[in-house]
Design goal:
two-stranded antiparallel ribbon; Wheat Germ Agglutinin (Isolectin 2), domain 1; NAD; C1-like_sf; elongated; four-stranded antiparallel sheet; alpha+beta
């Protein structure tokens, strides 16, 4: 659910009742249970881990069954929560996205093709 007139979707409270974050839903979608305990230190750690993970991935790929090039994206650079076009499961964090048509897949679901191979279009 999007924010409506500045009303947060999920507020995370500390045991003392103080607000930790008003972005609870977004953090859970992006990091799942790993977001806990929702502190700034934990979020910085997760961002660093995601950055390290991305260094191991190619910035763009050709995927079997799709005619366009797919680019590596995350919530910080054009991506966000998505439904994987291969496994139909929700994804968050890093994804390969087609900038032309919106096709998105988990990095684990990408089946790369040799650039010289014919493409079975989707």
């Amino acid at each position: 659910m999007p924010l409506t007139q500045g009303i947060p979707c999920l507020i995370i409270l500390a045991p003392n009742g103080k607000t930790i974050t008003k972005q609870g839903r977004n953090l859970i979608n992006l990091y799942r249970e790993n977001a806990y305990p929702f502190t700034e230190a934990r979020l910085e750690e997760l961002i660093k881990e995601m950055g390290e993970e991305a260094k191991k991935l190619p910035t763009s790929v050709r995927h079997v069954g799709h005619r366009h090039e797919l680019n590596l994206v995350s919530e910080g650079n054009g991506g966000g929560p998505f439904i994987c076009c291969e496994c139909d499961e929700q994804g968050s964090g890093w994804a390969y996205q087609c900038l032309e048509c919106g096709f998105e897949v988990h990095p684990k679901c990408v089946e790369t093709i040799n650039c010289n191979s014919p493409i079975n279009e989707r």
